[in-house]
């Protein structure tokens, strides 16, 4: 009997120790010390294999780090143990959500909820979290579940914390702030709630000093709480973006705070990846390339490292290395994880390695197959995320400057398919510009087959004029494009476009018309429009030819036409 009592006491103490260690693991997770948390949890699983919550917490870390297969292993093991196995059912439900099987996830969550005891609240919080952090989140369902948790226990701070997170991600800042504040009041040691209050302040973009004050307040409570330094880094980065005069100073501060964050979390592969994300954000490609090399030494399998290596190598001018890394990344990565920017960098690396110079210094395509592949990859980027077309202007203009007008037209055409493209005015003009110069450089035989492209240029210029009715160059090129279409309707549109060019330019006075290039264009307009009006409106034709001669007394064409008239 004495032995039994002693054994019972030992088990009780062991259970308390396990709970304390589990809480240490949770603290490490909250502090984003994931490697430390994994070590604690693996030790707990080894010493207390019947405690399901430890398997769940470990699986949840792997899931948050985008290792669903590892997460599934621990969830399935934890589901089979004696105590608190239901947490792992929740984890498996989140995996169902990530795979698009919401019905299977709901069945698992319902099964867990059905068996909950009166005071069981934490399970509801984790169900709510599953909806928040799923690949395709459902914030409304998360809010509904977390409100159940609050109804069960109105003093459970974690329920308010994640209710705030759900509202925050659902763009309801007022309710988010209210719930984060409640969580912080219920548990002043819950630094994550205080942190999120600062994040909301930071994201107003007009309250950076107030956000920094809030984060400094957290440091005063716990100077070793790593996530606050990451938020300070982001705050200074964003502040630098809105205050150009301070951008360099604030970017340096941002990178310094991120290094502090790294030192207080860990230098594991996943922490280095978060660091790489920030280096990418701040455009520190030299440091990013160095970080990618360190990560490759740690893990030669993870394809995400290749993404960082590819981006950095391209921005640092090492185009062959970028092409190799990005090709390997897309080959190895889960197709769901390949984003538009990956295809864009692949296309850019192919462009850079398939265009060279001839003996005269002209740009030439040195590898046609690879060049065509580059254009296809840039198209794929736009198909994956149309918003990336905001960045096509620079790509198209570079091709245009290399006199690769046809490929430039392709890039600009893709860009103009996005009506929300912030460069729509310039991209539409450059589309027409590129098509026109591609056309005039074609052989006579190919010009006859190019009417469809010229018609696209005409439509693009209509968009330019819709956005800016007095864009004189748009009228000039609209006239030139229609002249090359060689049809009666096109000649009529040509004449009207020249009329408008003349109207807009002459309205600007002699300060504009006296410019040599403008005077030359006016002569072109008077001559070509005059040729059209010579058939339909002889008085207008004579007026135009007379004005052309006034600008250029050596205009023999206009002189001859005046004599004919």
Automatic annotation (TrEMBL):
Coiled-coil regions listed: none
Keywords, A to Z, come to: Repeat, Signal, TPR repeat
Q: In its keyword annotation, does this UniProt entry include Nucleus? A: no
Q: Where are the TPR repeats?
A: 157-190, 523-555
One Pfam family named in its UniProt record: TPR_8
Signal peptide feature range = 1-19
Q: Which InterPro entries match?
A: TPR-like_helical_dom_sf (IPR011990), TPR_rpt (IPR019734), Ycf3 (IPR050498)
Q: What name does this protein carry? A: Tetratricopeptide repeat protein
- The UniProt record lists the keyword Repeat: yes
Spell out the PANTHER family in the cross-references.
TETRATRICOPEPTIDE REPEAT PROTEIN 6, UDP-N-ACETYLGLUCOSAMINE--PEPTIDE N-ACETYLGLUCOSAMINYLTRANSFERASE SPINDLY-RELATED
Taxonomic path? Bacteria, Pseudomonadati, Bacteroidota, Flavobacteriia, Flavobacteriales
